Amino acid sequence: QDPDFTRLMETAPKHQQGRKPITFTGPFGTRLDGELIVDFAHHPAWDDVAFEPRMAKLQGARIEVLQVCIRIGGRTMDVPEATQAELEQLCWDFLHLEQAEEEARAAKRQKEWACRQAPEASQ
What we know:
Blueprint: H1 3-10, E1 14-25, E2 31-43, E3 45-47, E4 52-54, E5 62-72, E6 75-77, H2 84-121
Antiparallel strand pairs: 1-2, 2-5, 3-4, 5-6
């Protein structure tokens, strides 16, 4: 396979959406539950030595925040105050959580597979 094509495909931005529950205190002390929604692109870095993408921030990958909003009930509004660094960190946190969840699912599948294989091995 063409190395340039491989690099292009492996480092193409991966569009994601991070969601985080939030709570506001509204007028007269009322509680408003909502959701912070961040649309972002995860841009992997490329390792020319290993010839593979690098997904972590410390390895040169980066986050591009595309859109941020808050949804309360059926209404969507702009985020009042959030720095670019805070939004990017939220995106990295979302990616780390997603990776941990995938690893947990893979471990569960592996354990289930091992349990199914154990009775067959004893026969």
